[in-house]
Amino acid sequence: MRQLSLVERGAGYVLVQAILIGLIIFGPQGPLLLPEWTTTSFLRSYVWLLGVIISLLGLLLTIVAALNLGKNLTPLPCPKEGAQLIQGGLYRIVRHPIYFGVLLVALGWLLIYPYAFVLVYVIALFIFFDLKTRCEEIWLIERFPAYLEYKQKVKKLIPGLY
User: Which domains does the chain have, with CATH numbers?
Assistant: First the structure.
């Protein structure tokens, strides 16, 4: 069997993902989404604290999900040669827990920095992960026929919802 190139294994997806995450963290923020009076209020402090908590939870979930994958972990959406299908750990509750964790971090970041462009970047990241998983799951089904049954039982990006 022919070895797939980096591009054929989805390196472009990794690049777009990095750009979107970079925009969330470092990109232009745009206008504030909250009313001006909230910038000095207790409400703003609570929203900020909630953002920190959600971001830390997302980071923890991302790390645990990566550990659940073990030697199967790759930045590319195409599974590694010799990879095994993982359905345990966080993969019991969501098919793509790393993406879910990253989305939580992005949501938390939005609460910490509630600006219009940050919201647009977070929405774009969610849409991107939805599209990326469609491609990734084609490769997973080709490699692991049992993935079809797993796909019917476990939600894709948000546990219990989607």
Answer: 58-162 (1.20.120.1630)
Q: How far apart are the C-alpha atoms of 115 and 34, rounded to whole Å?
A: 8
- pLDDT of res. 1: 56
| Amino acid type, 148 | L
Question: In whole angstroms, how far apart are CA 154 and each of 14, 32, 92, 159, 160?
Answer: 24, 37, 7, 8, 8
DSSP 8-state code for residue 40: G
Cα gap 49→61, rounded to integer Å: 18
- How many C-beta atoms lie closer than 10 Å to residue 70's C-beta? 11
* CA–CA gap between residue 58 and residue 100 (Å, rounded): 7
The CA distance from 74 to 76, in Å, is 5
d(CA 134, CA 122): 19
What are the mean pLDDT values of the chain's consecutive 10-residue runs (162 residues total)?
77 96 97 78 89 98 98 94 95 98 98 97 98 96 96 97 96
For residue 148, give both structure tokens. Answer: 């079809």
Angle between helices 11-26 and 97-112 (to 10 degrees): 20
